[in-house]
Amino acid sequence: AADINIDSVQNVCLGDTVRLVPTSTTITNPVFLWYADQQKTTPITNGVNPATGVLTLTNLSTGTYTYYVSVSSNGNCANLAGDLKQVTVNVGRKATAADIQVTGNTTTCANTTVTLTASSTTVTNPVFRWYRDAALTQFIRSTSTFVTDTLTTTTTYYVTVQGVNACENAPGAAQSVTVTVTSALPAPTVSGAAICAGQTALVQVTNPDATVTYTWYNNQTRSVLLATADSFRTGPLTADTTLYVQASKAGCISQLVPAVITVNSVASPVVDANQPVCAGSSGTLVIKAPVNGVVYRWYNVPTGGTALNTDAGTSFITGPLNTSTIFYVEATGTSGCTGASGRVPVTAVITPAPGAPTLVTNNQTICAGGSVTFTIANPDPSVTYHWFTAAVNGTELTPTTPTTLTVNNVIATTTYYVSAVNAAGCSNAGGRTTATVNVNPAPTAPVVTIPNQVVCLNNSATFQVSNPDPALTYVWYGATNNDSLTTGTSFTTPVLTANMNYYVVAKNNTGCSSQSNTAVTVTVTNSIATPTVGANQTLCLGQTLTLNVINPVAGIVYHWYTTATGGTPVATGATVTFNGVIANTAYYVDASATAGNCTSSTRAMISVTVNSIPAAPAAANPGVTTCLNTTATLAVLNADPTLTYNWYTVQSGGTPVATGASVNVGPITTNTNYYVEDVNASGCPSAQRTLVTVTASTAPAAPQVSGNGQSQCPGSSYILTATSTTPGASFAWYTTATGGTPISQTSIFTTPAISQNTTYYVEASINGGCVSATRTAVPITVLAPLPAPVVTVTNKTATSITFTWTAIPGATGYVVSVGDSTHFVAPSTGATGTSHTVTNLQPNQNVTIYVRAIGVGTCQNSPITAVTDKTTNPNGNNCYVPNLFSPNGDGINDIEYVYGTAIAQLEFRIYNHWGQLVFESKDQRQGWDGTMNGVKQPVGVYVYILKATMQDGTVVTKKGNVTLMR
Known about the structure:
Immunoglobulin-like, 11 domains, Gliding motility-associated-like protein, six-stranded mixed beta sheet, 966 residues, FN3_sf, 81 strands, mainly beta, Ig-like_fold
């Protein structure tokens, strides 16, 4: 047994699964076997894992169980009997709620705690565990004495117990204890207070309850009791304070409620005791470093009176003053508390204003663009002078010196203003002194026709004012711009041997000159270089030719020739133009001075090559008509593949809208002119463009069609007729809604034989190929057999049956046949009726009806529907044999029949009183006429025997008497 390791005693709870796990540290690869006794007479195999030797036990009842285990291995024999390892399993019960007793107060006030104590007289060494829920998932703590949380609502707790002789309660079996929380004592409502520094404050409960006690404290810990009353008045306070009040009643207390006391204090205003004010003006008295939220009120008396201001009062405007005046200001906080020092006096000290400044000259006149200077006459060194652009406010100007103002480039009459300000900041009375400058207009600078000229050595140059104004005088100057040479609209220089600069200005009748002069230059030369020209040019016949001198020199005159030497100039200028050039030409240009005979020694040449142009193209169709909002095809007639064809919407200029011998343009929204030109390989276009007009036509309306309204049988043809509201429209028939090839192009179209539903399409068109926007669909429906009627029986009696069917859409009527399907007639309710009644029937009689729906044509007739039913049988399986008949030939009751409405087979026998068979029949329609073998039988009583098999298989037998009378 010592080779086996396992707890010899194991305690478990009722319902637990027990696993007994043996191990061995001395046996290699041990094999464990379990027994119910030490003598190994009762092996245990159920619940044993052969590989591990673990014994699993389930469903054990409470009690003590003993098990025995042995061990063996390949090299060790199993334990001998009596030397097995013993394991004792104690299965304890689970505790119940009855095992636990809980004491403590189970009723309490809100916001308090409760102490609960658990004990047990049935569990040894009990251990208690407290939970918040019956499922025991929310564990609180393990203790016998349990202090609850602070409670605000009724709460249930759960406690379990476990000990030596009991396991912990199962979920749902714990002892519960409910603590009932009475309504919380409401927290009192209190009013705070706001006071000024040094005052006392009264705090009180709002609407106090006479049955409740109110206790005041100075802090939240309630360390100092201040009073027990509805209200409490403090002593003088200098700082904000918070007190606390609590209500109590019948042992319950409320939450502490704060009562806040705000102590307001305001500093006295800080001001300058003396503040200067200019005589006759309003003064502004100012608070230094004003405090946000504080209102400053100004008075003209030290106490009482009415405040002079209604705003925050950080500054105060006195109104015009001529004598020094004392004002008073006090500070008031938002709480209404004033500064401790009361009102503070402020003296507005009157300062005399300086005299108005006098100018040496108040009005001056200058030319536009000139400068003006205004000077103070007899300036006072104790004041400063301020210059402005307006009599009041305006922009202050910077003076040139303390007593002068200079303004440059004055272009319009302007008034300036000056005031004198003393050291106290007082301006002169009577407003600012005016200084006006009157500006005369200046003429514009003159324009010289040729301002830069080149002349030969020892020659003169002449300059001319362009478009001179006769009201102006033009003055010419030399290089220094102040040595006037002459006046006039033109100026001829002396003979020159060097380059010279001259200037000209314009003067009007007020003596004002143009604000700028016009410079002219003369360049003196003894030789002129041959001009430089551009490259040779190639152009098309009739085009415009432009020739240029590269980097032309100002003052040089350029003459163009068609000869290398001699000849007459054909044009003059640095850039010249020749219109309608038609032949190859060489052009030559030389350079000459403005005056003298200085000319370049050679002429520069430009060779011009003129290429031929093609003839204007011919249009394949000069007038094209197309549908509105569609494209149009434009084409050239007999296009030349060596030419390029460009299409325009303008007769000349513009940008091509298409290129090609045949092009598509559009969509066309209005009548439009197009122009085509052809361009040869040299890039030369035709001299003119050819006009092609495109007319936008409104598409015809989609056609209307008749002839397809009546459906026909398969294999029939239809004659379809198309019409249009557009006069002169043509028609085309298709088998597709778009595209495809027309199958007919006439207004009347006869279809081929049609065997199934088909749709044709037709479109309308007008001259120019404009077709309707859509094709009209023409559906043709081929007649198909109608569905067979659904026939039901809606009424039946012993002698009639009514058959009814639902109307078939498209049917023109119905036919019925009774008994067979070959002879049809109209229903009893008429040819279009939907019911038929069969009459003159016998009870329990079968009837078959055949119904067919009739269509427009025979091909539309429906299949036949057959329905069988039978009349009612009021008598059921009854059989009746009359007990008296009189076969005397009077036609009344001459035959003895068997009566019954449901007889399928019959055996009817009649016997005389000797038992002789006198009549026998198997046909219900064959009765006894009172004879036997043709001999009348005597009057008397006869016996009948009847055996009848009914239609439902029932066999009816009857026996009775029948009396024959004559």
